[in-house]
From TrEMBL:
Gene3D superfamilies in the cross-refs: Immunoglobulins
Gene Ontology CC, one term: plasma membrane
Keyword flag Signal: yes
Recorded GO MF terms: cell-cell adhesion mediator activity
A GO BP annotation: axon guidance
Principal subcellular localization: membrane
Protein name per its UniProtKB record: Fibronectin type-III domain-containing protein
Compartments reported by the entry: Cell membrane
UniProt superkingdom: Eukaryota
PANTHER family, alphabetized: CONTACTIN 3B-RELATED (PTHR44170:SF18), PROTEIN SIDEKICK (PTHR44170)
Lineage: Eukaryota, Metazoa, Chordata, Craniata, Vertebrata
InterPro entries registered for this protein in UniProt: FN3_dom, FN3_sf, Ig-like_fold
């Protein structure tokens, strides 16, 4: 809004002029309140994320003043209408899974894709109370950490923008790995000869809730 000391007279107001980008004819409307900071144009025929050129002028009882410089604005976006495809999930450890997907087809005329939302829940939990993490729009995978071991986790992915979120993908699942063996080898014994060292130890037997021993370091 223009400060009162710059209005230079009574009957002050604004002239809002706008036109679809690439056209030549301005659509104009008058806003009579000097304190108004915005104008909303409603038309059901406006397509999502359509560019418009806009300029705002001023007037009072003596006549019209100058217009602002022309600015390009966009109509509101619509939320994505398709779900990501090719969703897969891989267990990386006892507490980490990685979810991957294919980027959804996207045109700039549909708006700006902000990113993807990944929902996940475990076998004993309810889908409605699932946790959610977000990935940026150019990412097609995300790692989810801090999970419980040896437990099935279900995941689904959807895209979102400033208007909202689209539909979820099909649900996929993976089971986190068991925890590593918790016990170290016992009775470690060194035998030293002239040219070599022989090391012996008792083998470790993994507990039922632990992953199998595949070797020693």
């Amino acid at each position: 809004p223009i400060p009162e000391e710059l209005q230079n007279g009574e009957g002050f107001g604004y002239v809002v002029a706008f036109r679809p980008f690439g056209t030549t004819t301005w659509i104009q409307t008058v806003v009579t309140s000097p304190d108004t900071p915005r104008y909303v144009f409603r038309n059901e025929s406006i397509l999502p994320f359509s560019p418009y050129e806009v300029k705002v002028g001023v007037y009072n009882n003596k006549g019209e003043g100058p217009f602002s410089s022309i600015t390009t604005v966009f109509s509101a976006e619509e939320e994505p209408t398709v779900a990501p495809s090719g969703v897969s999930v891989t267990s990386l450890s006892s507490s980490v899974i990685e979810v991957s997907w294919k980027a959804i087809p996207w045109k700039m005329s549909s708006g700006r894709l902000l990113g993807y939302e990944v929902r996940y829940w475990n076998n004993g939990g309810k889908e409605e109370s699932s946790n959610r993490v977000k990935a940026a729009g150019n990412e097609t995978s995300i790692r989810i950490t801090g999970l419980k071991s040896n437990l099935a986790y279900y995941t689904a992915v959807r895209a979102y923008n400033s208007a909202g979120a689209g539909p979820f993908s099909a649900t996929v699942n993976a089971t986190t790995k068991k925890t590593p063996p918790s016990q170290p080898p016992g009775n470690v014994v060194w035998n030293v000869t002239d040219s070599r060292v022989i090391l012996n130890w008792e083998e470790v037997r993994a507990m039922e809730n632990e992953s199998e021993v595949t070797g020693y370091k």
